[in-house]
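Structure, all two chains, one model.
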Amino acid sequence: MSGEKLLTLWSNSAALSAVIWVVLLLVVLYIARRPAHKLLKALGRTVYRGLRFAARALLGVSERLAQRNREVMLMQAREHQVQRLQREFERVANYVNRDLSAYPALNRQLSSVGAKVEEDFQKSGEVPPVPPPWIQAVDTIARIPSNGDPMVADILQNVETMVEKTSKELVDSYRKAAGKRHELLQGMLPMWRYMNRKLDTLEKLFTGLGERTQKIDNQIARLEEIIEGTDQVQETLKSSAVTQFVVAALLLVVTTIGGIINFNLIAMPMSEMVGGASYIGPFHASDVAALMLVAMEISVGVFLMDALRFTHLFPAIGTMEDKTRRRVVVLMLVFLTVLACIEASLGFMRNLLAADKEALIRQLAGGAVQSSAALEYRWLPSLAQMVLGFILPFLLAWAAIPLEMFVHSGRTVAGLTSAAALRFGAFSLRLVGNFFDSLSRLLVAFYDALVSPMLLAERWVMALRASHATHAESAKTKKAA
Amino acid sequence: MKRIIASLIACALIAVAGCTETGGRHARAVYVLLDVSGSYNQKLDAANPVINYLLGTLVSGDSLTVASIDSASFTEKDIVGKVTFDDRPSVANEQKRAFRERLDGFFKDRKPSTRTDVSGAMLQAAQELDESGAGHRYILVFSDLEQDLPKGYVRDSKLPLQGADVVAVDVTKLRADNVNPQNYVDRLAHWQQVVTQDGGKWQVVNDMDHLDRIIN
């Protein structure tokens, strides 16, 4: 039945028919008012509860994820801290082995020098020879007046001469002894200096050791904080992870650009090696080979950095015996050098091919022969490309460090982002749930607004009935009276 | 365990080798037809820049054939030069130089023909390209496209042009076309119909500044 027929179902006048339809509709709506209210409210509540339940579930997942992130973050931080501590202990061990291993020998040297100094000091302290006790008596005799007796005068003269001679001998002997003491003291000077120097060195050694110990104390304190997992530590770790992630991402972008430059440098000459007409799937075999070469350089770089213990992407390499690890380092360095040499030669070949192609194009265009100046300086780009080809693999090898940073910090950042997204999802679900709840109330009010004429009529009928009932009651009362 | 690893490596190598293909669907094959009939012979030098462009553009694995259109062109004898460029770019460049020298000789010593067998030349080109198995096939025709077959020659065969691009380059106008341009329009329409009917793609390029539009 078409709309037009429906409209004129009750009367030929469309307006009248429409009015009848509206009245009918209002009646139907009025009759169905209570069940419709119930339905709308139930729908609203169902959607609201369902979404709230989903939001709660999401929040639960988010909390579990956040907890897991916390655990992972703290575990990573603990591992890093333990590694740092290990490194610090290794440094102290190296320090002790290298510098303090010589301490017993130094101690012996210092003891022997000390003994020698003591001995010399004792020697320098020896009492100089004293004048014999009789000399004073002889001196007194020599001062006795001769009273003009030439014989007595002669004897006294001899006695005086003898006293003077003995005094002179005594002074000489004293001077000699003093000179010897000075010599001994002079000889002690370099020993004192030597001892001073050695003691200074020892002081420095012990100061350095003290500083290292202080550092270890700090590291242990930090480790304890991490193990406790305080909020402050967690916040610090989070912000540190985000910073590391951003820095690592930037460095990886730079490395990727370097890789692309490297790829472009070797892709063209690679066609001379693997053929320019070969394809692997939709790609040029030379492009794939160049890409593989770059990938190999990065892989070798990753292994090298792991073997050097700069990174820990492959625990199997890091935990190797030192001897084996050193062999791996040498092997990877050899590989890297070989790859760099291959790239340098490809860089050289690139320039040759470019020159050949340029010459061909010129020849085909019937152009003039290139000027000698241009030919003279052609070695410059060749050299630049060779150097670039040689250096880039070594630079790409360092990509392992930002890569590790990116992977480790990425895990934390991804966890944080996911938890935040889940929380946002839960919030959105609650919001939508509330919206549906409010919408159901709104629809109920709208429904009532639609059937308001019927409601007014109902109210009027009710009022009328109430008034009739009141009249009837009053009539009964009057009759009874 | 070692055997398993060795087998896996061997399988991977075989798979990679199996994926590797030379030329084939990636290669381009270009067949250039040069009309040496009296009506076009004088203007044939216009083909040189296009051939040079092709020599500069085509790479290892691609092939280039240059043939002339004369009185009876459904024959290999009309092929001036044919080359498939080597895998190594340096060798390919040498091939290009040699090919150019050969073409220079042809351009120098060419003799005009009395008749024009465009259909025969097209059939020859289409068959050659079809056999080449190249993924991208082009026929470049330097001609006024005015067919003038010797008596008794029949050229009703279907051209195997499925997937090929036929490009009419620098289609010159004849004296009669100036009198009635409809002749020129009809001639182009006729060849377009022939080419498209047989599965080819038709294109007319008269502007030499847009050579890059010819070959992808």
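The mean pLDDT of chain A is 86.
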